[in-house]
């Protein structure tokens, strides 16, 4: 990202700030650079991606003449009231900005601003407004920045603030591993230890490139077993795995951690996907002696020609959506990783056409059983078809919502992973 002017000043301030104080540093910097802003609040999405949760209370931004150091602002935050109830993404203005990745501007009466999101002329007598700015990093939706303002916006302000949402997203991704503040904020309840281990393995919720868009979701979020997804985008290809771990709880999480770690180690050493699967198979077998294994889909998608190389070592399945037609991708099922030593794995290939969508699921989706029986391939195909016009990032949750509805309010009996890949 190339920033200039005020967004560049914000970027510099965030880069120099301690990892735990990004919201306070941002609020102070915004007040210095944008006089109409009177308050700022950072919201992050929860593990279910159904709610936005407050990182810092609605913060009255200090006047330029006041003490705007991060420590002073943090002290004001500590004295503020308890955080409000989580804000539901569906049906809220903040949620609309989160989902669309576009700023949403509201007037004082709660109506959409008449400027159509382009800002006003800087009129100081304009009514108070609230601006919701999406916070993103390389296509991944992290949350929303809520800004209160008095007076109108000057020309170009909203475009700059939209850019600042991306600046903040990049800064958050860097700061996330240096403090627990943002992880704590996104939790509506305590995670089990197994869930803690699983979430640390995930690469994120979404990733975009020049030729593709990718998004994934893991459900349930707070108490899970061994399902997982992983990806790595390179200059010429995308590596993608979906793992269906055996068992439940901490043992399943440890098994999946070993599998994902072994696959990553082989991939980062330059091994092709056949070698990756074979090396991971050997590592799991050495540890568990064939008593435990993981069913894994290992994929490589070449950007030059759109050819998918794939090893089906177990149960995860691929659906291809081409236009309105949804069809399973036929694959030769090979042995799960860790079942027998010295297993050789052979990659299959199939081509993608421009506009193709792949929906990849673990058996916690298509084999899930609810009061009405098994979810099944037909219901999965219907869910994928119903979501065909949705943005890539919305598809995994749309399929999960269909699965939850199938369960009629009962808890899922197994983990459910859904990954959506769009080939542009």
TrEMBL record:
Location of the PPM-type phosphatase domain: 209-423
Broad class of enzyme this protein falls into: hydrolase
Region feature Disordered, mapped onto this chain: 109-128
Domain of life: Bacteria
Alphabetical list of InterPro entries matching this protein: Bact_Sigma-Reg, GAF-like_dom_sf, PPM-type-like_dom_sf, PPM-type_phosphatase-like_dom
SMART domains: PP2C_SIG (SM00331)
Gene Ontology molecular functions: protein serine/threonine phosphatase activity
EC number: 3.1.3.16
Keywords: Hydrolase
Protein name: PP2C family protein-serine/threonine phosphatase
